[in-house]
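Practice problem 4.
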């Protein structure tokens, strides 16, 4: 069954903690990203103690620096953390080795392939002439071979990844929009049901839940759709 991750996109510790309590019955993980972590640091994660956290920092630097960053967050006990696959195989491998210092309860290292805000034109502007799906598969193979536990990718690439990668690779899919919800700055979106049918292990949903008049009800509706 596909799990639901709520993206808690805020800089306010009290708001994130309140969302955690409200959404816990429907969400298996809570994603905290750069905005929240840079505003609050370790104290921000401690406020979510008792709730499983996906720390989405998208680390991207030389291997030694990324390994140090991973070691620095291990005491916060995230269940998942992210690096950019485009940082290269050595960087991904360094992140995995650093994560293993946490022992049995280490976080899963997920590699970000192509951001869901990028389409083919945006990729070309960065010098990548491949279509998004082709670039995703290239980076996915590199990352998994280097030791990543899974990937962050668009739901549109999930079938190809399932066909070409180890079936144990964990696929986490952002860019999810319930039917009728505007896509905003996401370019490659799917509904929760579509993403689950495609083979996503987890979907990440932010604004459709946190901007709803009743976030708990919105999360429950999405969880029901996944079931």
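Answer key:
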């Amino acid at each position: 069954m596909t799990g639901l991750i709520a993206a808690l996109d805020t800089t306010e510790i009290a708001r994130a903690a309140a969302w955690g309590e409200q959404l816990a019955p429907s969400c298996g993980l809570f994603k905290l990203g750069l905005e929240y972590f840079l505003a609050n640091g370790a104290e921000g994660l401690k406020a979510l103690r008792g709730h499983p956290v996906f720390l989405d920092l998208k680390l991207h630097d030389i291997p030694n620096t990324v390994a140090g960053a991973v070691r620095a967050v291990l005491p916060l006990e995230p269940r998942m953390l992210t690096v950019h696959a485009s940082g290269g195989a050595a960087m991904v491998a360094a992140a995995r080795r650093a994560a293993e210092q946490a022992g049995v309860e280490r976080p899963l290292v997920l590699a970000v392939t192509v951001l869901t805000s990028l389409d083919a034109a945006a990729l070309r502007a960065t010098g990548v002439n491949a279509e998004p799906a082709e670039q995703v598969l290239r980076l996915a193979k590199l990352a998994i071979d280097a030791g990543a536990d899974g990937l962050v990718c668009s739901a549109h690439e999930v079938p190809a990844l399932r066909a070409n990668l180890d079936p144990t690779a964990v696929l986490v899919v952002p860019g999810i929009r319930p039917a009728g919800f505007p896509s905003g700055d996401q370019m490659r979106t799917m509904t929760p049901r579509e993403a689950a049918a495609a083979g996503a292990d987890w979907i990440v949903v932010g604004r459709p839940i946190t901007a709803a008049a009743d976030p708990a009800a919105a999360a429950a509706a999405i969880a029901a759709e996944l079931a």
